[in-house]
Amino acid sequence: MRILVVVGPAVVADPALLESLATAACAELGVPGRLVTAASAAEVRSLVTETGSPVVALPGPDPEVRALIGDAPPHVVWYDLTVEPPVPGSAHLQGRGAWGLAWAVRHALHRHRSPATRIAYGPLADQWGELRLPPAAGAGPVPVVVLLHGGFWRSMWGADLMDALAVDLAGRGYASWNVEYRRPDRHDWDATTADVAAGVAALAGLADGGRLDLDRVVLLGHSAGGQLALRACADQAGGAHRDLPGPPGVAATRVALAVSLAGVLDLAEGERRYLGDGAIPAALGGTPATVPQRYAAADPMARVPIGVPTLLVQGADDSPDLVDANRRYAVAARAAGDDVDHLELPGDHFAVIDPGSTVWRATMAAVERRLGRRT
User: Fold this and answer.
1) Which of 86, 208, 217, 362 is 20 to 30 A from 71, comparing alpha carbons?
2) What angle, rounded to 10 degrees, do the helices at 163-171 and 100-113 form?
3) Which pTM does this prediction carry?
4) Phi-psi bin for 140: left (phi > 0), alpha (psi -120 to 50), beta?
């Protein structure tokens, strides 16, 4: 098995640079790779359909090539260097520049090695989740981890960020429900909040013939997804602000444990510190002074106690502002009466979503202890 990278005829990038990036990504994953630059849309079609092995295709702006995106075999991951709208029904990443080719290669390999079932929870292009199940072994239903990706609430980052964790969880005997959602840069903050609530609630309809243990549901978010996870728990449990319910008409999925990996947990202070180059006011549509109700509803620091057992995980080598916010949140949540574990270990912002890292192994040990207490 090898990974084939197909570059469309009008892609604006140096082929040697793309080849070096693809080669490095394949080497990191321990698989051989090959890059081919196609001369036409017909050649792109021929290349992406000639093999059942993972394919990453860079379509570029050529309309004939782009018309292939929604009509390609499922083993093809499409990647646009530029910011482009999502193509419904396809594996399509976009907007991360040349560096994003490595993410596309990883996504293609994960999809090949551990296939997931994509299920829509709404009619729009970004309203879906991917369900991965552990191998058919053992007796009884399996616990479920709902995954919420980060990326500072920007559309260039998607659910593929959580692929490696989803695959690792399956190997540990967990099911995973990796939720995509509309981001506020293309929609608005209320759309993001509604989608997360609907995506989490959709789990109740995915019982898979009794294989899923809906009494052992872990809601796990990374970075901005950590904020979304704790806010979703606060909405469902009532939290400190019982006048701030979740979206109407969305049934709750009972969460046994909330896990925040390098979460953005103090939005008001993060806005004052210009965290993520102004990502917080850009996402929420203003500052605490201009949209105070949005911050009151969205800010984990303002919602304690959330009423759900919580595990905070933070890489000590991450942004000092995130380290600071997680430490302060742990103190505030405990003081408000929440049951909180705070795990801070060496590692950067992405170590917490790297299955090979010490901090992830410690995270799963803590999750298993928590779920063990429940049983």
Assistant:
1) 208
2) 30
3) 0.94
4) left
